[in-house]
Amino acid sequence: MSRQLRYQVAVSLDGFIAGPNGEFDWIVMDPAIDFSALYKEFDTAVMGRKTYDAGLAQGASGAMPGIEVVVFSRTLAPSTRKGLSIVTGDAPEAVAALKAKPGRDIWLFGGGALFRSLLDAGLVDSVEVAVMPVLLGAGVPLLPPGHPAKLVFNEQKTLPASGIVMLSYAVPGSGGSAPPIRYIKTDGTGKKSRPARKPAAAAKRRRPKTKRAATARR
What we know:
By secondary structure, the chain is of the alpha/beta class. It has one domain (5-216): Dihydrofolate Reductase, subunit A. Helices cover 22% and strands 28% of the residues. The protein has six helices and eleven strands. The protein has a nine-stranded mixed sheet with strand order 5-6-4-3-7-1-8-11-10. α2 (49-57) links the parallel β3 (42-48) and β4 (68-72). The chain is globular, with a radius of gyration of 21 Å. The N and C termini lie far apart (58 Å).
């Protein structure tokens, strides 16, 4: 199976992925999210220059642990160093080349303009958003104006401790699919998540003993 390009991002309830000045200090943290497990699903991340600059402005180095970061920019000079490359060429063409290489999935980290260009090029395989219980009122939209795109629902998880709702959708026509949400380590109360009990199995355990079985135990 080829690598998937996954738009994996936090979003406010009113549809913004960053504040008016690119800030992301509004993002709610939840101990149920296993970020180590999440990072292991990717070996490459792609982002736009504004997302990269916003991270630098808030103290991030631009690099991500265990992940090769590719920044697309028309204004920054092209460069390459360990874990980080700045690319000035055509983003859809470069991302298509990345998808053709072997490896783990590719994290479309942001921002909205890059998402729009890659979505229009048919390269985005899934849209996976963590909806924060926050209203920003203004900021960077999840997706700039353009052609509409229908999505196919894959999975939903709610984290009761924080109120975060995780949503996963596949993008039809991309040839890819949305993976399950595997990086939730607890149910939000500190307890490990457990799969729902199957109704048939539960009914079997509740089935009353037969008269024959009761006689045999005497």
